[in-house]
Design a protein that fits this description.
Layout: H1 2-6, H2 34-61, H3 74-80, H4 93-109, E1 115-116, E2 119-120, H5 123-144, E3 147-148, H6 157-161, E4 167-168, H7 170-181
Antiparallel strand pairs: 1-2, 3-4
Helix pairs in contact: 2-3, 2-4, 2-5, 4-5, 5-7
């Protein structure tokens, strides 16, 4: 068979699929190329994987079937007893906002009018990016309560420092993002 002729076939695990050694950065604010758009979307998916790790730790450590022992890492112990503070390496709003801000950037700069034949090239990944942003915001609000809400990409320190973004709870976020997902 073909597989026997090729030798052992090794497939990457799900967690390794989006790992990259690339240090390539995108400095052109327009995402009007098919390849740049896909690479940017893969970058967002990689950030989603890192966020998912934290999400699972928080959920599992606070679950009914998990107990800490004397060998449990202190950061995990603090998650389990709801005493984690901003120094906890498994509990950071930063990972959520990294996904959100990258999604905001993509949504603001992606040219969704590109066609291949009669097919809009970007619409599937555009919809996925909007769904990633909504999920990240919902989990952020679920974990932290009221959170700063913004849909424009923050690309300068002055935008972050001078922010007067509304703080929305879960219901406020749903009312803002749900119409956009229809």
């Amino acid at each position: 068979s073909l597989l026997a002729a090729m030798g052992a076939l090794t497939l990457p695990s799900c967690s390794d699929m989006l790992e990259t050694e690339s240090s390539r950065q995108l400095f052109d604010k327009e995402l009007d190329s098919k390849t740049d758009s896909v690479h940017f979307a893969f970058g967002v998916m990689q950030a989603m994987q890192q966020l998912a790790d934290q999400y699972v730790f928080i959920g599992e450590m606070r679950g009914d079937l998990v107990r800490t022992t004397e060998y449990t890492d202190n950061n995990l112990r603090r998650l389990a007893d709801f005493s984690a503070d901003t120094s906890n390496k498994y509990d950071s709003a930063y990972v959520y906002y990294r996904v959100i801000n990258n999604c905001n950037y993509y949504i603001a700069h992606r040219d969704t009018t590109l066609l291949t034949g009669s097919t809009l090239v970007a619409m599937r990944e555009y919809a996925a990016i909007k769904a990633f942003r909504a999920w990240a915001y919902l989990q952020l609000a679920r974990t932290y309560g009221k959170v700063p809400f913004f849909t424009d990409p923050l690309t300068t320190i002055s935008q972050i420092n001078g922010s007067n973004y509304p703080e929305l709870d879960l219901n406020g976020i749903v009312s803002r993002l749900a119409p956009d997902l229809e």
